[in-house]
């Protein structure tokens, strides 16, 4: 956000309901409501010619919002390390993330999330790879952000991120969309998420990054920000 402020852009970030500083409501933890929340924020702020950027589950949020609510207000979108078109393994998505892995995420958020949030930062940022430079600041900041939210919201969000199908949403989007994905993403595997999403978009562009992790906006901020800026200005 600091990078784009310094380049003269207005930058707005929202905390998903139950996450971060948002109210810790028990209700509305589904992708339709997430997208409707964004739509309400956009209407209140009367945003026009906006560019929506989402990382991981946020990329699903952007996809559902643009497909159903974007209208004339959104001119471009970016999906970074994102969950679409569908995350979990199903009969129609045999290469997705296995259900037992998803169940591990559910159990971690439900029963021991303080330790789970600390542990998941290792694969999230690729810190388990040979030669990786581990940043304790990045790990602690991720943990801080996680523990700010509501446990029930995070638990229910695992179902949302793993089971929501975005195939139809992606096909509806007719604005330019940049899909950015690390090829060593251990959370949202590149071949089954980013690489497939771009094939469903009318104006999709794929930019993949050999060796980069799920959390590449933090570990490789200079590279990701520069590529985002180029897309935005194009």
Automatic annotation (TrEMBL):
Residues annotated as domain AB hydrolase-1: 5-214
Protein name: Biotin synthesis protein BioH
Matching InterPro entries: AB_hydrolase, AB_hydrolase_1, AB_hydrolase_fold
Superkingdom of origin: Bacteria
